Amino acid sequence: MTINAASNSYNPKVAVPWLNQVLCLVESEVLRSALADVHLRVAVKRQAQ
User: Could you tell me the sign of the dihedral formed by the alpha carbons of 39, 44, 45, 49, in that order?
Assistant: First the structure.
């Protein structure tokens, strides 16, 4: 029995764009929460004055 190496060649083609999309989503969520945190800090400082 021989295993054809080309039979697994489809997985990386699907995995790379999927992983890229997931990483972009995570990065955007992290940036969004960081910006929200900054806005909350500014609001708290304004209210404390």
Answer: positive
Q: What is the pLDDT of residues 19-29, one digit of tens each?
A: 899 999 999 99
Residue at token pair 């060649």: 9
Which runs of consecutive H residues, i.e. helices, occur in the chain? 10-48
Query: What pTM was computed for the model?
Result: 0.55
Type of residue at 42: V
Domain ranges, ordered by start, for the chain: 25-49
CB atoms within 10 A of CB 24: 10
Please give the Cα distance from 32 to 29 (Å, whole number): 5
